[in-house]
Amino acid sequence: MSDLDLTDEAEFDDAPLTDEEVRQAAFGYISEAWADARADGVDTDAVAHAALFTALIDLVQTYGEDAVAKLAEGLPDRIRRGDYTTDRTLQ
Q1: What is the pLDDT of residues 27-80, one digit of tens each?
Q2: Which domain of life is it from (predicted)?
């Protein structure tokens, strides 16, 4: 049995999440939904298109068309730089 004080653990559970923790949790939800769709036989391209479409709709509703268009203008450079490549070797 552990010597952990459960009252301390409860206090920790109520602590606000950091931005990084929120992003990690969100990524986990999206990854799980993506895996579920793939397991149900939905084509990867269709899932990707739906995810991008849904994200853009939400961003436009939150920040407006001009702000999202400006964000999207930077995507080609970020893609070429490898920001979205998971299997790259960092030097």
Answers
A1: 999 999 999 999 999 999 999 999 999 999 999 999 999 999 999 999 999 999
A2: Bacteria
Tokens found for residue 22 = 């929120």
CB 68 within 8 A of CB 60: yes
* pLDDT tens string 15-28: 899 999 999 999 99
Give the amino acid at 46.
A
Give the span between the Cα atoms of 33 and 30, in whole angstroms.
5
Domain boundaries in the chain?
7-42, 43-84
Rounded CA gap, 43 and 4, in Å?
46
17, 25 contact by CB (below 8 A): yes
Which token pair is 18? 């950091």
